[in-house]
Amino acid sequence: MQFFIDTANLDEIKEANDLGILDGVTTNPSLMAKEGITGEENIMNHYISICNIVDGPVSAEVNATDFEGIVKEGTYLATLHKNIVVKVPMVLDGIKAIKYFSKKGIKTNCTLIFSAGQALLAAKAGATYISPFLGRLDDISANGLDLVAQIRTIYDNYAFDTQILAASVRHPMHIIHCAEIGSDVMTGPLKAIKALASHPLTTSGLEQFLADFKKGNQ
Ligand code: E4P
Q1: Cα(169) to centroid of ligand 1, in Å?
Q2: In the predicted model, is pLDDT for residue 59 greater than 90?
Q3: If phi over 0 gives left and psi between -120 and 50 gives alpha, with beta otherwise, what is residue 168?
């Protein structure tokens, strides 16, 4: 399973990249705003800065919701760097735009997926990735992981090339369950990725080994 980090924070992206386990980055307008990145020029430069840190797919989201607007914005975003993936919202004009981009060889990530029907439509249009938001489904007492599993079955039934990018991941167990289901990619916060390394028995075991080494080498 590929690991993407879901942030626009350059320090966090560098930290994850330095671990050597980072495959890509996802951003969205809210994550950009959280970092105080506003104005078209700054936003475009920020995407380029991210692409200069990570050698992998970087999702950059369009803000238009109509076909012409999505095509115009997405076409420009794709010129910024070879690793840019155009993030398109799950609306009917977005589906049309994904079909357009797929014919042009521009990679897409269909975002805000909350149902299997939406995932099926996006795959039919030729999306490179689809992003089911599992944490947001959990937030409303639905089961985000069940949706990821349902989409996995559907895509496998027809050998769709579209990759499942499990998004809105909130904690390490989300990551582990996504790996069990066979999600192609997960995108989550640095905190959830780093939490995978922690175990109290590793901590206490290491403390004991270090103490015994010290005793034996005094
Ligand atoms: C996906 O690409 C989104 O950026 C993201 O995962 C949304 O996560 P949130 O629900 O924690 O905002």
Answers
A1: 7
A2: yes
A3: left
Q: Can you tell me the distance from the alpha carbon of 5 to that of 30, in angstroms, rounded to the nearest whole number?
A: 15
The CA–CA distances, whole Å, from 83 to 57, 61, 128, 186, 217 equal 5, 13, 13, 17, 51
Question: Helix, strand, or coil here: 87?
Answer: strand
Catalytic residue (one of 34, 87, 107, 215)? 87
Told to judge if 99 belongs to the known catalytic residues of this protein, a careful annotator would answer no
Return all residues near 105 (Cβ < 8 A) that are at least 6 apart.
Answer: none
165 sits in which H/E element:
strand 163-166
Q: Are 23 and 2 in contact (CB under 8 A)?
A: yes
218 pLDDT tier (thresholds 50, 70, 90): confident
> Which residue lies with its CA nearest to atom 11 of ligand 1?
168
**pTM of structure:** 0.96
